[in-house]
């Protein structure tokens, strides 16, 4: 039976990891934001405490989810962004090495510059913003300083539900619940949505192997932000009630001032070559996510 230490497990992906891994492993789920009874406090910036807690628990797997994920916050708080996303990742390497645990580091499609239409596992990163740079530096440290690692790069994350989702799906749902009858959505940003349940399940399978390395891990299919919004309205049967209007990114330049790549599309080349690609289609993931986490919430408003 595995002993799995998860950092940053109180966020939008954390519950999917907790649910999957606690079925057959002993899990110590940690975060600085204690929003579940099964979480305990661990700040990945504090190496001394991290080492003490890990040494007590003795994990053979560490899943490093902890990060600051708000792009605008990272632009405005660079010191904390680098401390959390880079030094925090370095601390996980030091702890994993000491305990000889397998280490999973979650990276992002946002490490690429969007000059290409899509990126495989071997393309060269060139991040455009502080968040992307900090995640890439974390990824690079893991790769350069440890051998038993899996770096898994996610796309536009969908998960966490009403209370934890901080990203696009939640932002659209919030506007719907606030009674908006017209939504303005960009169609000049492309990506590959990533359902947190698929992501946690695929990582669960990957770490059973010793195929250490860097993996793109996104759902099948791609689209623009507009396509995702359109799909949300379709699943919720709201296409006749709410109008969707396409805009370009300039429309939101004050609110979302961090520079973003025009394409963050990833392909799971290595997972496919290893016959380990278990990611479903993003539309199916979105459907499951909305039905499980949002349907009643939206319908009762
Ligand atoms: N969300 C996405 O679209 C996306 C896409 C690609 C990759 N990723 C990566 O996926 C991983 C999981 O993120 P997520 O999607 O679940 O986002 P999230 O909801 O922001 O989760 C990250 C969690 O880490 C916590 N955290 C922040 N600083 C910490 C620290 N010093 N020590 C311990 N925990 C800390 C956060 O707490 P607070 O809420 O208090 O900050 C939050 O609970 C991250 O590594 C992220 O970079 C995310």
Automatic annotation (TrEMBL):
Main enzyme class: oxidoreductase
Span of domain RmlD-like substrate binding: 3-292
InterPro entries assigned: dTDP_dehydrorham_reduct, NAD(P)-bd_dom_sf, RmlD-like-bd
EC number: 1.1.1.133
Origin: domain of life: Bacteria
Keywords: NADP, Oxidoreductase
Keyword Ribonucleoprotein: no
Pathway membership, UniProt: Carbohydrate biosynthesis; dTDP-L-rhamnose biosynthesis
Function of the protein: Catalyzes the reduction of dTDP-6-deoxy-L-lyxo-4-hexulose to yield dTDP-L-rhamnose.
Similarity comment: Belongs to the dTDP-4-dehydrorhamnose reductase family.
UniProt-recorded name of the protein: dTDP-4-dehydrorhamnose reductase
Native source organism of the sequence: Paenibacillus silvae
